[in-house]
Amino acid sequence: MLPRLSPLLRNPPMALAVSRATPPLPLHTILPATTLSSLHSPLSLSFAPKPSNFNFLLLTNNGHSNKKLKTFSQDNYRCTVWASQRGYREFRRRPVAGRRSKKKDLELNVSICIEEGLPNDPEILSIAELLRLNVPTAMKLAFDNLKSSTFKTRDEAITDVGGFDGIELSVMLCNDEFIRKLNKEWRDEDHATDVLSMSQHVPGLGLPFLMLGDIVISAETAARQAEERGHTIIDEIRVLLVHGLLHLLGFDHEISEEAEAEMDKEEQVLLESLGWKGKGLIQSAYDAESNMNHDMQSSDDRKKEGSLRFYKPKFSYIFCDMDGTLLNSKSQISLTNVKALKEALSRGVKVVIATGKARPAVIDILKAVDLAGKNGIISEFSPGVFLQGLIVYGRQGREIFRSNLDLSVCRDACLYSWEHKVPLIAFSNDRCLTLFEHPLVDSLHTVYHEPKAEIMPSVEDLLSAVDIQKMIFLDTAEGVATNLRPFWSEATGGRANVVQAVPDMLEIVPPGTSKGSGVKLLLDHLGITAKEVMAIGDGENDIEMLELASLGIALSNGSEKTKAVANVIGASNDEDGVASAIYQYAF
After folding, report:
1. Mean pLDDT score across all residues of the chain
2. Secondary structure of 191-251 in the HEC alphabet?
3. What pLDDT band is residue 158 in, cutting at 50, 70 and 90?
4. CB count, 10 Å around CB of 454?
5. Which PROSITE patterns is this protein grouped with (predicted)?
6. E-assigned strands of 495-582?
7. CA nearest to 304, candidates 185, 127, 175
8. Of 61, 159, 347, 409, which has the fewest Cβ atoms less than 10 A away?
9. Is pLDDT at 99 greater than 90 in this prediction?
10. φ, ψ for residue 478 (rounded to 5)?
């Protein structure tokens, strides 16, 4: 059984609850090898019998236990639920009133398990509670049908269940990531599936208990199929349960058309007798094929929109850049990125912006997509790293760090701008200042949402008006690469650093400061370790931040230097790279 000894899950870290095999019986010398067969549905899988003879032993944090929990009786069937203290979360079976027969009751030992990777989603917990009641009822009806019906193709290794003292079955709910690993390990197919069945019954051993086996169901795939088939996730999980149970009872639709028809019919009989909605899995597969819309998953099986509720967060914080990362090449944030960020927030992950922009610009952009304010990722009261780490806001949005540019550097830059008529923007907290009008100056406001630049009458007026944190030269990408960057890399003379976030802008910032240093300062302020952080960026100014984080993701549109230091290279900013990173790596 899954919470005891399952060949599927016996190896840690997948399974933390295991069993100890009974020593005296050398099963490996008398049992045939395991065989595998795929189901009619490309997303389903069945397993032939595996050796199973063991004492019940549940490992916990405090040792091990073999304690039975609640027991109930119903028409000659007595159901007991076993539970471990750790590993898989299991549910105690509430007593159900029923008449006790004078005959010896057949004990049904049913384990309803939730794999550790699934978070405590209310809907999944509710489904597990329902399965507590549903599984024993389905088992009883399926066993009764075996006695009252004749089947031509069913493997009759299991015949009269009344000859056993009890029957053991485990049902596990998991996500696509977990079931994909099982599918890869046991079938060498690298994609998620909806249900896996594994029989543990070994005929001829004379065991008092029928070790019926394990049914593993991906709640994530079930939710997706439920939406496609127009019913609820519990309806779909019940369909998958029936399919898996019939496989454990010897039905196999793969061996012939007759066997397929027989199992298809029995699926429908069970579902209708139980009063459960939906067609059987075989019939649903037929329908999907006839409609030519069967969802064949790609080899990467990335998590998709709406799926994060089936996963626990791997990180507490996501630090994210703006230009070239969260914003696409049109300086817009896509709806897909917005949905991914909102899903991450709903799962308890905090998103922190780390950007070269001023805070008002970020608030303005994210406000338009309902990501600013109390329940968003940015507000005047949230932490963040702005102006390439030159201004850092901590708890309650209070400023905890500011670094100003050397006045002599500011003067030299202003004079260069005036003499060569190269547009220059001086950033001072929430203000932008410039010396003359220019279309590129306007674009910083209209395209990049920075504060509208104030035109100062002279260099001295600009320098005396405010403290300046950084300056940006605006030109063509070629002009920056061939003229501005070579000149200012030398002209700063150690008084400042030059960095680039986008190809057509050159930023001059104070030495010894960077976005990465700002992120490090904020982490220390908030008491966060780098292990809790995933960072997403694209430019050279993001390199330190990506190196600092536990997982650094550079989008494919990023600079070669940035991609060289990243742990992962993600999709581009025009391909919803932030959303892809969140779905694939954050959970």
Report:
1. 82
2. CCCCEEEEECCCCCCCCCEEEEEEEEEEHHHHHHHHHHHCCCHHHHHHHHHHHHHHHHCCC
3. confident
4. 14
5. COF_2, UPF0054
6. 497-499, 505-509, 533-537, 551-555, 568-570
7. 175
8. 61
9. no
10. -70, -40
What amino acid occupies position 527?
G
HSE of 456 in the Cβ direction (CA atoms, 13 Å)? 21
Predicted confidence at residue 302, as pLDDT, reads: 52
Q: For residue range 567-583, list pLDDT tens digits in order.
A: 999 999 999 999 999 99
Is residue 96 classed as helix, strand or coil in its secondary structure?
A: coil
Fill in the amino acid letter for 245. Answer: L
Q: Terminal CA-to-CA distance of the chain, rounded, Å?
A: 28
The enclosing H or E element of 20 equals strand 20-21
Asked if 468 and 496 count as a contact pair (C-beta separation under 8 A), the reply is: no
Q: Which of 318, 329, 320, 326 is nearest to 369 (CA)?
A: 326
Residue with tokens 């065989």: 35
Those residues with Cβ within 8 angstroms of residue 272's Cβ, 6 or more apart along the chain or in another chain: none
Is the pLDDT at 91 greater than 90? The verdict is: no
- Judged against a pLDDT cut of 90, whether residue 215 lies above it is answered with yes
How far is residue 212 from each of residues 4, 39, 49, 473, 509, measured CA to CA in Å?
A: 13, 19, 9, 72, 68
Alpha helix stretches (DSSP H) within 404-469 = 407-420, 439-446, 459-465
List, for residues 521-579, the tens digit of each pLDDT value.
999 999 999 999 999 999 999 999 999 999 999 999 999 999 999 999 999 999 999 99
